[in-house]
Amino acid sequence: MGCRIHGERGILVASSTTDSWVGFGQNGNNAFTTLETITGGEGREIPGTDARVFSYLDSDPNHPDAYAYWLEGRSGFTMYTVVAEDADESTVAALEELVIKYASQVLDGVSSRTEDPGPNWNDPADAAPSAEPTAFATAEQTAAVAASADSSDRARSEAEDAKNAKPDELLELINGSVADHQNDEVYAAAFSDVMGPEGMAELAYAINQRRLQQTENLSAYDPNDPDAEYATRWDRTNDAWLSAQATLSICFGTATNSSAWTPQHRSDYAEKLSGLVTDEAQPTTCRSASTCCCREPTGRRRTY
To answer: Is residue 87 within 8 Å of 57, Cβ to Cβ?
Structure first.
């Protein structure tokens, strides 16, 4: 669950998860270990709770973004800036206070607040003793963590964009950045989790509906492309949307095979997707009908 607030000097994103191992963890480690690695500390303990709060400013030299995370059991709540013009340590401090103020309300009734935070598949403490890492190895590890964080942040931001994008913006996003990262496990898992099963189903359905609408209503003549024949423009339009469908399917497939998703999470996600399918005759683009995200979902009906 998440929301995005647009301001004059940047964007503020707030997002919660019932499974922070999937939502915030990186490199097979849970969210606590991940954020301890990123921040270099154990976080701020919150009296009266089992929660810890982590906050930091990223290392972008021009427009750094501020982050604050509330972790409690396996649940989590975060607030962070996107393309903010003047985020600094005071922004970090403000976000930290905001997550402390609102996390208990946002996560009220979430059972995973008392669950184990998840495994650490790559925790050095669980590994066999080894020689002291070289400066090069340490730099490589730091770079890997930073790259994973960037990939996850990008995915979360672009998933929020996809939810409210206009047709041309959606096509550009899916065939652009999402296609570029469709085989990135971190990106795909984060994108699919922010969208959620219903969001992925609605996105796939929207892409297919846009393809049908634009090809069925394609004008006989385009003044912006007067030399192109109708058949050529029809094929171009159809292929662009089919490419977007394929990209979404591949991205979702990457997520389901990602080490960031536990077998239980895969099963839960697939079950929720299956529950959204109401029309078995609706065309699909997913490879598995049991986890298809391309039919019209139940609950909310949109007009495209």
So the answer is: yes
Overall pTM surpassing 0.90 (yes/no): no
Mind giving me the DSSP string for 13-77?
EEEEES-HHHHT--TT--HHHHHHHHHSS--EE-TTSS-EEEEEE---SSS--EEEEEEETTEEE
Looking up tokens 């998860």 gives: 17
Average pLDDT over the chain, rounded to whole?
80
Residues 64 and 154 in one domain: no
Clarify whether residues 274 and 182 are in a common domain.
Answer: yes
Q: Are 90 and 162 within one domain?
A: no
Residue predicted with more confidence, 168 or 258: 168
Nearest Cα neighbor of 184 from 164, 158, 219 is 158
In a shared domain, residues 201 and 252: yes
The rounded distance, in Å, linking the Cα atoms of 99 and 215 is 46
Indicate if the pLDDT at residue 141 is higher than 80: no
Residue 32's domain comprises: 2-130
263 and 232 in contact (C-beta within 8 Å)?
A: no
Residue 121: inside a domain: yes
E strands present in 40-128: 44-45, 52-57, 66-72, 75-82
Q: 24: closest CA among 39, 5, 7?
A: 39
Is 79 within a domain?
Answer: yes
In the predicted structure, residue 128 carries a pLDDT above the cut 60 = no
From CA 155, how far away is CA 145, in angstroms rounded?
Answer: 15
- Residue 171 confidence (pLDDT): 93
Please indicate, yes or no, if residue 190 is contained in any of the structural domains.
Answer: yes
Q: Answer yes or no: do 213 and 274 share one domain.
A: yes
Please report whether residue 180 resides in a domain: yes
